[in-house]
Structure formats: C-alpha cells, structure tokens
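Work Package 3 (structural annotation) set out to generate three-dimensional models for the target panel prioritized at the project kickoff. During this period the team completed the workflow that converts sequence records into discrete structure tokens, so that structures can be stored uniformly alongside our sequence database. As a representative example, we reproduce one entry of 242 residues exactly as it appears in the project archive.
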Amino acid sequence: MSEQQNQQQTATAEQPGYAFKIEGRPDYSFLTVTIPANETLKVEASAMATMDTHINMKTKMKGGLGRWVTGESLFINEFTAEGGPGEIGIAPGPPGDLSHVYLHNEVIFLQNSAYVASTLGVEIETKWQGLKKGFFSGENLFLIRCSGDGDLWFNTYGAIIEIEVNGDYVVDTGHIVAFTEGLDYEVTMLGGYKSLFFSGEGVVCRFNGKGKVWIQTRLVDAMVSWVYPFRRVQKKNTTTSS
C-alpha cells in the first residue's frame, strides 16, 4: 500500500475529520480533500486547483487589518459540497511540503503565509506579535492563530520537520512554520551585531516550554541569494559614434 493510501486511511479510520491525501511530497505537495455532503472547507484564496462540479464557492474576508498590513490575502474561500460528497484539489503557492493536524480544542500559531485550509470548526485570526518580535525577527508583524476543533493543513517552503520541545530550543526565525500554544518565545540576536551582518547567522527565536515546533528546510531569501549571480543581465551598449 502506498504512502498516500496509508495517509488517507489514517485520516478516516484513526481520527475524526475529512478524508484526504497528499501527493507530490515533499517538493511540490498537492492536497486532495473529500468534503462530506453539505459540509464546507475553508481554503486560502487562489489555492484551489480542481474540484467537482457540484461544489459551490463563496469568498469571505478573514484576518482583518492584520493580513492587510502584512500584504497577504484578505480572503479565504469557502467550498461547500452541495447534495453529496465532493473532492477538491489544493495547490499551495510555495514549492514544498504540506502538514495536517487535527485540533482538539487546541491552538497552533502559523507564520503568515503557511495557512492552506481548514474545516469550519477551526477559527482563523491574526495575532499581533508586537514591534520588537515582528521588526527584529525580519518576519511579519502578525501570526495566524488557528484554534478550535477540526482539520488544519499548512505548507512550507522545502520539506517540513516536526520537533518536540521540552525546555529551551533555538530556531532561526526564517525556518519557523508553526508552533503550539504554551511555548513562550523571544526573538534575539545570535552572537551580537557582528554576527548579524557578517556571519550569515543572526536573528533567532528562543522557545521555552513544552510543545511542538514545525520548521521548513529551506529559506526563500537564501534561494534568492543563490540564484542572483545567475540572473540574466543586459549588456550596456558601449558603441560610440565617430
């Protein structure tokens, strides 16, 4: 039996929630969810790739001022399977992996671009990090707070690694995808200002407590820096008229 079939069985037999499968992982993960008859799935705007014809879509504003300030989408689309179960295919923007968590009256915080989809029992809202944590981390000022009961899917750039934290743990801010409520965190510099500007290492998040952290194996900024020397450059015309 394939990994995808195993994951689909786990989603239906060993826990509540919608049946789903994840294909193409970990590089270009694609999520397929079976929405039960007359039930609804919330999906990040522009992420729907395929769906059955009897699924109806409505667009609703989520996140309020927080997501507007950070430049992320203001809208989450709601897909309802009318009259019978239906399948929807979801393709997140970044090339990378997908992770699924079923919340049992729990809270998970996501980095601003990680949210992919959730069921109606999961409340999606923004959480202000504060100026210090937001500005000095080099990341967004807001996190996405996901709470309640139901399915939650989120994505990464690169592969995803789930880490159990019990005590203190340090993660580069750019690698953080999600973490559970109950973990305190503080954004600090690693090694002072000289390290920040010259070592390639600098701002980190110091977690404390007991919970889980999900990290991504790649950084967008690092990829941009790697590609930059290979960019196409237009040569200047040095010909002068006599």
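The chain has a mean pLDDT of 79.
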